[in-house]
């Protein structure tokens, strides 16, 4: 058990309001005035969640996007955000605000307030954002715990691009093919789709976003739901860019399933809803992929072209 | 113009939603489902907003309290909070959570969610809290901009205690009289009163909390309202502890008016409401103090026992 995990367990003991959902969901859900308010807060720390030389515009984009991803996973309409900003260099901060303005507009999350602070010299800076959304009318806000045996498991985009982008950045690969640029862009500018989440939510049995890696996040969903989730690694959707740079053998498929930072939707639904779900995605000019199945049991069951394979030691980013 | 101030000006240019109130109020006010949602977010940074050896319980208390103070200033009923936590030592973090739990219970702000992050070694840690409240029914959420010529200016507690407490801590005074302890406690464990804010709000013309110092915060209110605010420094309410430790001559009165970290309410109301306001406070076992008047004009006008005196160079904590 990591320190972060132990601390979150201690936090759970004090977060007893039902609105907190046991701190085991992507967001809190607070009922007020007949509305379901969806609340999430994520922090990005220099040297931990972004590289010090990442462009400030893209750090701001990511800060907004990772929160928009949580709203998307709850089918919530974005309403606005508050931001805490640690001041740095003037020019850097101005560029950050430029990226922030773009992202706020793109995701429909107008800046409503927050705080601006100075840091002691030499300290890593951190940026927190709280996003507020409104849950769908007449539809419960999706949980992670509703997956049922027999359901289909879906995801809303290709996996592994962002992780590969980060690997390319970290290894400082000099080659600058368009594929590299595309992958790095997926790392720096994730593109969650709140409108897609809202379109899918009414027919999903469980939904969350993939932020730490497909396998680790799916295991969380399986645990919360008391079911087993089955994947065939050969069926995981990969982008052309991913295939071109990394290939698509079993190792690369597993890498894509454990990399994290994807910010796509992971959801389950009864098979009878499959056609509707595909149509809903198509109506938004996007695609969803059936990537697994739910059965009775527990944990993640992994196959490669129909034959069982063992789970990797590392399922994703472990808190 | 400080860097922080310049940055906030740039932020204003992108915070165009009316709910943001031009980033010139204590909180954002978002209308949803017939309710007025009051949203605030404050960050405490190690070495800037708290001393590294402050007890972790009291840092957590302060984090919750400074946000509760913003809700109080808007007359809002506290609903819940989200917190971003930078991990430190296990024992320290546990003690912090203990203080957090106490404060969340005291202020009626159950923990609903947030984020927990690691920091690079040696970095100052920071803690952000977003508090959510509900504005009073059928009453507009108080602004800073409604003060009218002829109004009385009020505050909800004594001033300067916290600043003197910090001064005592910083000078490492060895004397540990009960008065010192009381002042240090005011610095470490501010006691805003959301219930008082809600009781007063319906009859105030403007309300905000005093966080940066009475004079600087009152000047903000005067500017927002397009009026002048008059104080007689000899009438500023001081605690017995303050008087015992620092005295009450003009320098000490001015110090109390510019120290900051008071987290009391500053508000204006027509004279006709004075008796009601006093009764409302008394009903909550607390006191409010008439400390000034509003006139046409601009800025702050200061007197000492009826004779004009000049404003100090420093009106409070300048962002």
TrEMBL record, chains A, B:
Q: Give the residues the record marks as binding Mg(2+) 1.
A: 42, 115
Its UniProt entry gives the catalysed reaction(s) as: thiamine phosphate + ATP = thiamine diphosphate + ADP
Other information: Reaction mechanism of ThiL seems to utilize a direct, inline transfer of the gamma-phosphate of ATP to TMP rather than a phosphorylated enzyme intermediate.
Give binding positions for Mg(2+) 2: 42, 70
Output the CDD domains linked to this UniProt entry. ThiL
Pathway in which the depicted protein is active: Cofactor biosynthesis; thiamine diphosphate biosynthesis; thiamine diphosphate from thiamine phosphate: step 1/1
Extract one GO molecular function annotation from the record. Answer: thiamine-phosphate kinase activity
- Entry's family note: Belongs to the thiamine-monophosphate kinase family.
* Species per Swiss-Prot/TrEMBL record: Novosphingobium clariflavum
User: Which InterPro entries would you find in this protein's record?
Assistant: PurM-like_C_dom, PurM-like_C_sf, PurM-like_N, PurM-like_N_sf, ThiL-like
Pfam families per record: AIRS (PF00586), AIRS_C (PF02769)
NCBIfam families listed in its UniProt record: thiL (TIGR01379)
Q: What does this protein do?
A: Catalyzes the ATP-dependent phosphorylation of thiamine-monophosphate (TMP) to form thiamine-pyrophosphate (TPP), the active form of vitamin B1.
Where does this protein hold Mg(2+) 3? Answer: 26, 70, 209
What name appears for this protein in its UniProt entry? Thiamine-monophosphate kinase
Which residue ranges does the record assign to the PurM-like N-terminal domain?
25-134
Binding sites annotated in the UniProt record for Mg(2+) 4: 26, 40, 70
EC numbers, comma separated? 2.7.4.16
Residues bound to Mg(2+) 5 are 212
Per UniProt, residues of the PurM-like C-terminal domain are: 148-305
Q: Which residues does the annotation say bind ATP?
A: 114-115, 144, 211
Q: Where does substrate bind?
A: 49, 261
Q: Which terms are listed as keywords in the entry?
A: ATP-binding, Kinase, Magnesium, Metal-binding, Nucleotide-binding, Thiamine biosynthesis, Transferase
